[in-house]
Structures
1.
Amino acid sequence: MPYMRGIVAELGFARREIEYTQRKRRSGKTKNNWYTLYDMAMLGITSYSKMVMRLATILGFVIAGMSFLIAMGYFIMKLIYWDKFPLGTAPIIISIFFLGSVQLFFIGFLGEYILNINTRVIKRPLVVEEKRINFD
């Protein structure tokens, strides 16, 4: 199903608003449950937004940087206090966070490529002209 709100906004034609007061429902229940509302929201986000992929890329980069700094601090502390500083599970946890954040970064980066391909395939117009003046 196409995302109707996005398609209407994409067309860009002159729009007029009509005042309307909806009456209360006489009987029955809405057919929209949590899943259908979630489906419409995800369709709108994935069709018209790059924010989620950019957020994944930025978040992966930031967490990778923090994990790297923590790992360097841990390494320096281990070199300074060799006998008193236990090896333990901290390096394993740091490396898991670092590798997970690198994966998150590249998933976001791959998503950016897919979004650019999708934008080119859809061939949405860059502008919508209402009128051309002084053009033949």
2.
Amino acid sequence: MRRLKLGLLFSAAAFIAACATATNTNTSIGNSNRTVVVNSGNSAATPAASPAVADDLASARAIFNATCVNCHRENGEGGIAELDEGVRIKVPSFKTAHSFQHTDQQFARKIANGDKEAGMPAFQGRLTPEQINALVRFIRREFQSAGPKEGMGHQDD
């Protein structure tokens, strides 16, 4: 009986120690522009982002930097971009009210199929559907979470 009590007491102490250690673990993910902090604790004051969401955003940021930043700029505001052929195009901002009107499906379709009239290339052969959907979520969170900016020009689709 004494062994059973000691075993239960030892197990309870180990459990409490493990829980106390896990609630104060922070991991920082990001680059010089923005950092996402993933808190593994169960604090009600700061909601924790799951590691899968943070990884998804980090990979989408890398895709954006590799495929979109040349035209849409690092800040998502677009502007005039010069293509390799010396052609200049007006690139829409992700921050205007116009870009908020599109559903995620429409947005993903535009990325996949491109827009020849606007000069946007198709990324369907270069990006998987999962990467395109992650890119849409990244753009929505990174550039559209504050709401649309008024007074900025846009290009119709």
3.
Amino acid sequence: MIVENDLAATASALISAQMSATPDPTQRPRVNVRHPDVMELVAAQVAVHFHSSIVETLRDHGGKITVGNTTLLLAEQFGFCYGVKRAIDLAYASRQVFPDNRIFLIGEIIHNPEVNRQLRDMDIVSLPWREMDASYDALTDDDVLIVPAFGAPTTFMDKVARRGCYVIDTTCGDVMKVWRRVRGYAKDHVTSIIHGKSDHEETRATASRALGEDGTGHYLMVLTLKDVDFLCDYIVHGGDKVGFLARFKGGHSPGFDPEIHLKTVGLANQTTMLKSETEEIQRRIRKAVIARNGDASAFQVFDTICGATQERQDALIEMLRQPMDLLLVVGGYNSSNTSHLVEMAQPLVTTFFIRDASCIRSLDEIVHFDLHDRREITSYANLLANPGPLTVGITAGASCPNNLIEETLFKVFELRGVPRAALDKV
């Protein structure tokens, strides 16, 4: 194993090799920090911070554990996906390769408070992501800038390039697939209809790519089926252009004209949206284009829901076929893929969206996030206090580490009178 005082030499060799391979010596390359020795140290760090042996054991044995009259179910797919693991690994590796440099991160690496807290403890400083402020002007060519898993708008990337920083790009491969699609739309003069949250980092990054290489492309963001129905009505019948632009204010490209830029459209989406809703949006827009044109030649579509998001949604559907008294969905409140799991489950079972185990305060008090009011609330229920048999389900989005799932599992059993030691024997 590499020792700590060898890392400076490793870092120097990595950077020198990559700089010598860069045609323009005035431009810093995106640094590949995935050196085997570095990643060995990173794997050990990440395991200490986020691993859970009991969660892995449960996953391997069908995701079900019963002790006494309490049964706990885990979804077949939950927690960190490959893209999230990769982003975290790269962020940890950046501190190993650059032990003495200032390291900055655009926004959050992923949407999980515990993960981002660990990075802050490593002296990785989060910069604003909604807009660039003076902190970006203060970056130097000795600084390191981490691009989060969601990616970042082209304006941010251009600014960082001008500052000459080292760049560690952790953008998820599924997100970059969407970027390639919307760039293709722009090249072919097709307007991108982006299904996503207009204030989400990924959607903003995708929208910037929808402008195309020359900046002449166009996009329109839609979130709800009501947005889509409004759009479809305009596609078929036309209407009040001023009213249309007001409806989608802040969610369209500069100079967007619905009378011109809705003639040929292509659908893309934030990769973590609800699969069934995206499919319904595809169907409605295609139907509208056919109603206007007589065929679907002016409508393009490409499935850009990420595989991990789909797997976790499908796993929850299967889980909901089993009888449960209560479902706990664990993850960051600003996590899109996690919130969609909550949306799927709420009509079918009593569901609480919790940040971590500390939200379960007692047998009858749970602090959780209300998706409708967009705030944390406290509910009082006697579900956990029920002395009879109880079945509790747990799932989590792609940005939730296993240690938080473990603590939630322990908390449920402890409140039901089952100590941690008893679970070690299961």
